[in-house]
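This part of the workshop introduces the protein records we will be handling. Each record describes a single protein and holds just a pair of labelled lines. Instead of coordinates, the fold is spelled out as a row of discrete tokens. To make this concrete, we reproduce a full record directly below:
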Amino acid sequence: MFVIIGMVVVLASVVGGYLLEHGNISLLFQPVELLIIGGAALGGFIIQSPQKIIGLVLKNVMRVFSAKSTSKSEFLEVLGVLNSVFSKMRKEGLIAIEADIENPEQSPIFSKYPSILKNHHAVTFICDNLKVIISTNVASHELENIMDLEMETHHHEAMAPAHSVTKIADGLPALGIVAAVLGVVLTMAKISEPPEVLGHSIGAALVGTFLGVLLSYGFVGPIGTHLEHIANNDMVLFQVIKIALVSFVGGAAPQIAVEYARRVIPSDAKPGFTELEDAIRK
């Protein structure tokens, strides 16, 4: 919602300022210039991106308009499922959770937390590392190193769409100049025309530079930055899971382990100590 509001503000400010200076709005409507810039940018994106990256960009660009930061209730759910798993392991032994982590969709523990089940990456991260814990005598520092490597790989992949979109944004001003140069070439072919015709052609050519810069800094560049924020926000949940698992393997009690994990949640979504206690009791 805020992304759409931002786009409207950009257009309203630029076009509105132009109109307030008594500009002719019809001169800004140059679909051919937009075709040259947009088509060249799309072609460059296809050239620079493997098929996998193209798919990730298309998928993640849609998240710009719909993605929300992880909420307090979602963090409480992940802490709750970890506490339940840890408590079962402490009371019944490590092997007791084998069925839960082999098929989390059918697990009585995971089924209590539907928002976590919807997050495939988070569930896989939890279950894979619990399998390591119950199948090997892994030390806490070794488990932490394994999880750090996995998180680094996941973050690198999540950042790929942002980097790709940002590179396209960086090239848009130059593509706008390409469109403007082509417009000047066409204008030179009309050199024998009266000044009014030449002025209109030169103005249309300069719109190419205008569109390239506006698209770069007003739309595409901010979308790339937004994708970075989404990728970084997604990693917070993995960091919370990592702290809880490492703490538990290091010997912390279940409730202490999830309390350590609570400490790394950003302040805007961090549940209080009492909130976590109440959620665990329920």
